[in-house]
Amino acid sequence: MSIVSEQLSTGKQAGRTPAAPRRRNWLRLWGRFGQYVALVGYIVFLGFPLLWLLSTAFKSPQELAKLTPTLFPVDWTTENFRIAFEQTQLPQALLNSLIVAASTAVVTTVIAMPAAYALARLRSVVRTVSVGWILVSQIFPFILIVIPVFVLLNNLGLLNTLTGLVVVYVVWALPFTLWMLMGYVSAIPKELEEAAAMDGASKLNILARVVFPLLLPGIVATGMFAFISAWNEFFFALVIITDPAKETAPLLLARYVGAEGSVNLGPLAATALLTTLPSLLIFSIAQRKLVAGIMSGSVKG
Amino acid sequence: MTRTRIARSSLMLGSTAAALTLLAGCVSGSGSGSGGESPAPSSLAADQKVSLTFSTYAFQDATVKATEDIVASWNAANPNIQVTVQKVDPNSVHDKLVTQFAGKQAPDIIHDEAADIAGFSRQGNLADLSSLIPADLKQQVPQSVWDSVTYGGKITAVPTIAQVYTVFANTDLLKAAGVAVPTADAPWTWDAMHANANKLTKGGTSGFAWGLKSPTAGIMSTSLGFDGTFVTGDEAKPKISITDKELAVPSLLRKMLQDKSMAADSTSLSGTDTLKGFYAGKYAMVMAGNYVATQIQEEAPDGFNWTMLPLLKGTNQHQASNPQTLSVARQSKYPAQAAQFIAYYMQAKNLAAIAQGDSLIPVTKPAADLVAKNVGDANGWPAMLAAADQLVDAPWNKADQFPDWKENYATPAYQKFLAGEIDEAGLTKELTDGWKS
């Protein structure tokens, strides 16, 4: 290659060099823009039902009966909230739901944690049988067991009690939470425990200082699952609870739906909104712990 | 009340599981026996206190309040017989009762509807009230309505309020089209309604709409106006018979859909979903259960003028008697006291308050008279109250297989027929084959 052609070639490269990064920058910008558009679309998709619920809760019966609904109320009213509080025992029902859901989350997690560790770490026939049984228990439709459960609770004197409800929810949520936690335990490298043992840590120390911090995100996720399952559950509450003072929030919500499709929409939306708030609050707090747990695990790992 | 009801077959499965639990000895032997004899009225010592539970699915605010008022006034007047209310949502009554009966924890007094208590009556879960109903109450209710709560010769419930399917009309649109509102003495025939719906169909307005998302109950009830009884023979296991009488209503509806005097979109809506279009002038007339009158009063825009029309006439104005009911559980230790409370509930003042709250028809004459006095002649109420005389026993409600047939065969068949996917012969075949399967 001659000097001239070399210079030409170099000149061409030199000329192309600023254009390529510019194109890449544009592509990156468009890509980022697309990501944000998708993200906003996703947030709108997730958030719209909540926005609609909020809007419905503040609309009057006349406005709710319009053929063409508006996104926001034309005449805002708090009448639906007044009805929700005055005609039902909403605060008591929310408190009952909170007691039942929190108790279920705590008890389920406390039982599931050691069980999940044992099942994930121990290799024996018991493990195979237990895991198989957990899976089999998941295929039972709840309608099949509701009458026997009702009879058993009656004999135990737990019918129409929040304790009875917690017992049922714990039993119902345990197989899945156990399964979830087993996955988290399996993901913790066994070598970490062996290293701690080599350093002289006792088994209890290893569990408390090595396994537990790494398992925290899983525990939070499992607890949240158990909490939400119990918070939303309707059918067991329907058959177990008869005392109005012990009713949970889903029972109250169901009473706004009448026969043949008639719905008391405004008070239903107001009650549903108030019922959603504690759940959202707990989620937002638990989410922070969840992220903190993951970070803590990654550092230690 | 059947909208979200869990499949009875699943509950039967659950019942079987419960029976196994019982066999395993997990259940103590408390509660009443399993025979079918009438309960013996219990006599109380002078100072004995009785506590009764009353399960109710009262839905409308006014009905809930009326129910609470009745219980409060009873409790105040009867310190030795105290009633406690258990509320349940209308769509869960059946499921809750199934578990309560199985667990021997049924409430003493049960609010339900005639069609739903057939199974409970035959299974011996409800007390025979024949000897516990006061004679004057017996006379105040039409015999045809008593027939709808009589199973195997036993009266297992006291009927309270009833629903009919009636036409709600936008009177301003009728007036503008030169259509006169019919009177109780000269009700419209179905053909007259069709002709008037054609007159009312113009611009963006459909003359007639019927929320037929769940078409079976409405079509079968109104078919009684053409003497369409659908089933004959044994009470629990009757045979089906589909003739021109049973096909008259669906055939007319299809004609109306074809000539567009009936709004096609309404066939996919629920009974109350058509009301928005009714208020907006999209539909000039809507067919619905008369209970929607309460909803219209609450949410219709100011200045909206409407009325209920007298029941449409085929060969007669008959419709199915499927009243709400009050029963006494056979497990109850105090059936006589429970029956006393029911008799109190049925007093004209109490029943009128319940009926007005729900915009339904009280089945006793004194309560109907009181409602007539309270509401006057507004919104077609007099014709509606007179409809109590048109209620006749619907034999299909007592058939064991009716709930399953309705959900799995009749509803899809009617939907296909109204959508034009099958003709009359196809509808007849699907209804008949479904019943026989």
TrEMBL record, chain A:
Gene3D superfamilies: MetI-like. It is a multi-pass membrane protein. InterPro entries: BP-dep_ABC_trans_perm, MetI-like, MetI-like_sf. The chain crosses the membrane at residues 33-54, 98-119, 131-153, 165-185, 206-228, 265-286. It is found in: Cell membrane. Residues 94-286 form the ABC transmembrane type-1 domain. Keywords: Cell membrane, Membrane, Transmembrane, Transmembrane helix, Transport. Pfam families: BPD_transp_1. It comes from Nakamurella aerolata. The keyword ATP-binding does not apply. One of its GO terms (cellular component) is plasma membrane. This is Carbohydrate ABC transporter permease. Belongs to the binding-protein-dependent transport system permease family. Its main location: membrane. GO terms for biological process: transmembrane transport.
